TrEMBL record:
Keywords: Acetylation, Fatty acid metabolism, Isomerase, Lipid metabolism, Mitochondrion, Transit peptide. Homotrimer. It comes from Drosophila grimshawi. The lineage of its organism: Eukaryota, Metazoa, Ecdysozoa, Arthropoda, Hexapoda. This is Enoyl-CoA delta isomerase 1, mitochondrial. One of its GO terms (cellular component) is mitochondrial matrix. GO terms for biological process: fatty acid beta-oxidation. The gene is Dgri\GH11303. It is found in: Mitochondrion matrix. Its main location: mitochondrion.
């Protein structure tokens, strides 16, 4: 066996230090590999990592903590071996309490900015379905490794949702415009082969630990760069993508809330939620 392969296998076996995220919740878990300094951030909200207000706040706090503690990189993954994330928790959008909806949407915008602009190298080990905002979490990262047998994409138009600009941008930041446009208009969920073909993902892995090793290898590719120069260059490269959300977060929030509160949106959501529940009872 090659020395480099042995080294990578050691990486997979290495003991990690759990650093938690200060708020005592287990909705996300952070472990830092003592030898590589890379943090693994695990989504841990059963049953399917749907992003409710608490998960979004927790995730944002964990991203910030990983930056604060000087980790060399961030690998985002899931504790569920079938679902990376099922996207937004639809119960947050259905007949919402308005104060909670405001807090929820703000938390979503803030978390996305933190992940998209994170100063450390980021990679997603996608060990299950990554649906809608689940896909957005993965595309906010710099690199994606996925396991076969799962779907990834944004299928919002299939159930009557118009996606807000930052969700559109997260797709456009990894896909050529014509592919992103077609996929969004079709509400397409990509199989692994399709995702690899259009570069929605970068690599395929044959298990979660293999995915984490591949993500760590990608993060290791920045070892010889100067962290501040890398972070600022990333920020500059992504500056245009975040302009709207940084300049006018409250305007973006208002537009989304207006849309979510329309009878059209609420009726469509009611039908979709009922279908989801009946499917899970089958
Ligand atoms: C400005 C307007 C903005 C509009 C939003 C625009 C963009 C939209 C972004 C989003 O992210 S919306 C969310 C879209 N996500 C989905 O549609 C995913 C739906 N879920 C599934 O397809 C499946 O659950 C799964 C992820 C493939 C997993 O399948 P599995 O068979 O393992 O689990 P289930 O039995 O289906 O689910 C278990 C349990 O969880 C509930 N659930 C699943 N996903 C969600 C969700 N996103 N929100 C809330 N609840 C969810 C499901 O109903 C089951 O509940 P119980 O019946 O067991 O109570």
């Amino acid at each position: 066996m090659l020395r480099s392969q042995t080294k990578l296998m050691d990486l997979g076996r290495r003991l990690c230090r759990s650093i938690g995220n200060n708020n005592g919740s287990n909705l996300t878990m952070v472990e830092v590999d003592d030898k590589t300094g890379i943090a693994t951030l695990t989504l841990n909200k059963p049953p399917v990592n749907s992003c409710n207000l608490e998960l979004l706040l927790d995730l944002n706090e964990s991203i910030k903590q990983i930056e604060r503690n000087g980790s060399r990189g961030l690998i985002l993954t899931s504790s569920n071996d079938k679902v990376f994330s099922s996207g937004l928790d639809l119960n947050e959008l259905h007949q919402p309490n308005q104060d909670r909806l405001i807090a929820f949407w703000r938390a979503l915008q803030d978390m996305w900015l933190s992940l998209f602009l994170s100063r450390v190298p980021t990679a997603a080990a996608i060990n299950g379905h990554a649906i809608a905002v689940g896909c957005v979490l993965a595309t906010a990262c710099e690199y994606r490794v996925m396991l076969p047998g799962f779907s990834i994409g944004i299928h919002a138009t299939k159930f009557g949702y118009v996606v807000p600009p930052f969700i559109l941008i997260s797709y456009l930041s990894v896909l050529p415009r014509y592919i992103a446009e077609r996929a969004l208009l079709q509400g397409k969920l990509f199989s692994i082969d399709e995702a690899l073909h259009v570069n929605l993902i970068d690599e395929v892995a044959d298990g979660k630990s293999d995915a984490i090793i591949k993500c760590a290898k990608f993060i290791g590719s920045f070892a010889k760069t100067q962290p501040d120069a890398r972070a600022l260059t990333k920020r500059q490269t992504r500056a245009q993508d975040v302009q709207l959300l940084i300049k006018d977060p409250e305007g973006q929030l208002r537009e989304s809330l207006e849309y979510i509160n329309t009878p059209f949106f609420q009726q469509g959501l009611e039908v979709y939620l009922a279908k989801l529940k009946s499917k899970s009872k089958e």
